[in-house]
């Protein structure tokens, strides 16, 4: 099986390069998801023009980018998305798209494929009740599944992302079966972080100790997927499987099972790649080391006022992870056995939860060590988010006995009107 375009090669380790870029081309969206980190809905007033998009694309080619994922909002709502895809594809960049799928019609899928789109990821956050609640839109679930069918019929490779939280953590097996039956190739599981609109719903967020149950369940699902592939005579490299997102996992017994790409050497978490091999671009030209990082503290510059190469090479807000040791670690993470390689897991999740990277409570290994002591951790909201794209509130880590009563009433899914 060929290595994916974004897979690191020996030469990539010689100097930082934005091998993989996630590019928000517009904040305009046909959903107003209740857990959206960017608070998408309306377009930004100063989004890049078509010509500016193409200039940035050319700059990415010069920097050595190999894969670009277009996001929004909804990237397909820009009429020039086909031109941008074709432009980058002809330059040798693999272009993919992540979408909520609500407007993924047959005609749109055909045009995306003809422009050169290599793959598309359709977000499905569980069965209908959970998904439509999170997406704040009755009918969104049905539209996403229809979008998957349309994309596959157009010849696109289809993957799916799920945001895992308290609304859907108990229906992960049902979600996996649904996606496997729909023909999805890869299911990427990501934890809903307290950013954007999700920061306004602390009752929806996983508590750190809940990570154990989630990861154990995903491992069971991965083994089910392996058996399913074997029973059907499908090579594991081509079968439906689970992949952990960057803010889940960390050095439990299932790390390699869930982190390794089928057919590739065993893999494990090796620290935040923001600004090392990853770049995030916002629709107004703002550059960050990772698309998910909070905008205010991690903006390296803007392509409207500075060359992209200069921002990448010189901005300290971009370069924070390049020569990062353990000196900035604090709390549990500072003395952790895996500190040298892990370096507190996902930077954006830690920062959006507790206002500072370097100490990440959402960790499988950490939760197991706490449990051995008869303890568990919760995060308690102390200050609400201001209401801007990619913003965050302020949470405090609280320790309590492992067998404490649930901190909040169980989440109940509302009945959505059609």
Report on the architecture of this protein.
Pfam families: Radical_SAM, SPASM. This is Radical SAM additional 4Fe4S-binding SPASM domain-containing protein. GO terms for molecular function: 4 iron, 4 sulfur cluster binding; catalytic activity; metal ion binding. The chain has 418 residues and is α/β, with parallel strands linked by helices. It folds into two domains: 20-288, TIM Barrel (Alpha-Beta Barrel), CATH 3.20.20.70; 324-401, no CATH class. 31% of the residues lie in helices and 15% in strands. The protein is built from 14 helices and twelve strands. The strands form two sheets. The chain has a ten-stranded mixed beta sheet. Helix 3 links the parallel strand 3 (94-99) and strand 4 (119-122). Helix 2 (81-90) packs parallel to helix 3 (106-115). The model has no long low-confidence stretch (mean pLDDT 93).
Describe the protein's topology.
Blueprint (H helix, E strand, L loop, with lengths): L19 E5 L25 H14 L3 E5 L9 H10 L3 E6 L6 H10 L3 E4 L5 H7 L5 H14 L3 E8 L7 H10 L4 E6 L18 H22 L9 E4 L10 H5 L18 E4 L4 E3 L6 H4 L2 E2 L5 H7 L1 H4 L19 H4 L4 H8 L9 H9 L2 E9 L10 E8 L17
